[in-house]
């Protein structure tokens, strides 16, 4: 990652050169907060989760630090909770230039770069660190390039956490417990195949509709992190939760590639530096938030919680292992050989 060391004087000089004309050797101060959008760089950052989630808090911190370190020259406007676009719409909005920055789940970008479904493979990662290491691996670098070829510039990777299973009618412990249950899923062929292998049905719904379709009984079950379960109030319409940690949910922080290329080098460097700092902070925050939300779920006594045993986990893995062959048949082995448990 490029590093930026820039003095206050030199940065003010750069901004001054862009924004106003010097009169002989004398310059005049500018109140960047009073500049119009035409005189500032405005980044519209849209996401679909709540403001108090790890992604919501990180996006707000990112916005604050960028504005602070550019002295107001760059403004990041954050729109949470699908305020501008639903998760089924934000990729198109990014590519059309209607927003400049989003942070979708890896499953979401698979509609454009299907190879990213590697992150949906069940039990692929045992920790957040393993997921991050994969993103930085040669396979991860190829996947990032594929994003850029489609008009999306990769900036960073944010954590959410591991997914758990919830259900309305009974506990999900043995693979046979999934038979004929309908799950809400994100748009991902691999996730659809995952539940098909378990004998379940699946229905794609946007994140903002999860609570509604569960409440109305259109679907009976779903998979999500502790943080999302609590923040979307899913626990109020589900009676059973299995702590399975079967899949990892992370976010790709991406920008419209053309917009990124048009940014001044100095601004690019500041954005990357801030993101490096915020990403480290966000990773610790995500861990803590999920721990806190799990405690909330235990303390509320609103769902029967089952911890998947090692024996049960092996049964799930055996039932879902064919997904790895499915992925290889579609996209080749090059993307899965860097998954930690498959490394030779």
UniProtKB/TrEMBL annotation:
InterPro entries, sorted: DctP_fam (IPR018389), TRAP_DctP (IPR004682), TRAP_DctP_sf (IPR038404)
Biological processes annotated in GO: transmembrane transport
Bilayer-crossing regions: none
A UniProt-annotated Pfam family: DctP
GO cellular component, one term: outer membrane-bounded periplasmic space
Key words, A-Z: Signal, Transport
Family statement drawn from the similarity comment of this UniProt entry: Belongs to the bacterial solute-binding protein 7 family.
PANTHER family associated with the record: C4-DICARBOXYLATE-BINDING PROTEIN DCTB (PTHR33376:SF7), PTHR33376
Entry protein name: DctP family TRAP transporter solute-binding subunit
Species: Oceanobacillus halophilus
């Amino acid at each position: 990652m490029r590093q930026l060391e820039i003095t206050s004087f030199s940065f003010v000089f750069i901004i001054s050169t862009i924004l106003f004309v010097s009169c002989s050797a004398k310059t005049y101060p500018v109140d960047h907060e009073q500049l119009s959008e035409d005189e500032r760089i405005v980044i519209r950052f849209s996401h679909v989760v709540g403001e108090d989630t790890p992604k919501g808090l990180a996006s707000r911190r990112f916005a604050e630090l960028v504005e602070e370190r550019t002295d107001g020259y760059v403004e990041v406007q954050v729109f949470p909770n699908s305020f501008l676009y639903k998760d089924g719409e934000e990729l198109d909005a990014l590519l059309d230039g209607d927003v400049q920055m989003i942070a979708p789940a890896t499953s979401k970008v698979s509609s454009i770069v299907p190879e990213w479904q590697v992150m949906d493979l069940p039990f692929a990662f045992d920790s957040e660190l393993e997921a991050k290491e994969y993103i930085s691996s040669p396979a991860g670098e190829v996947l990032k390039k594929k994003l850029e070829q489609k008009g999306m510039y990769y900036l960073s990777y944010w954590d959410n956490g591991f997914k758990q299973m919830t259900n309305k009618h009974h506990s999900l412990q043995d693979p046979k417990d999934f038979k004929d249950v309908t799950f809400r899923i994100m748009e991902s062929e691999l996730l659809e195949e995952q539940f098909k292998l378990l004998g379940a049905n699946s229905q794609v719904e946007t994140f903002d509709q999860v609570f509604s379709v569960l409440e109305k009984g259109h679907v009976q079950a779903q998979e999500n992190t502790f943080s999302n379960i609590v923040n979307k109030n899913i626990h109020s319409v589900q009676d059973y939760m299995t702590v399975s940690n079967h899949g990892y949910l992370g976010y790709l922080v991406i920008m419209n590639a053309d917009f990124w290329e048009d940014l001044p080098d100095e601004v690019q460097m500041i954005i990357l530096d801030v993101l490096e700092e915020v990403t480290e902070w966000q990773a610790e925050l995500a861990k803590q938030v999920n721990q806190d939300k799990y405690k909330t779920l235990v303390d509320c006594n609103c769902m029967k919680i089952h911890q998947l045993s090692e024996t049960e986990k092996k049964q799930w893995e055996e039932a879902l292992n064919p997904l790895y062959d499915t992925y290889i048949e579609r996209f080749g082995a090059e993307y899965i050989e860097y998954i930690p448990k498959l490394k030779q």
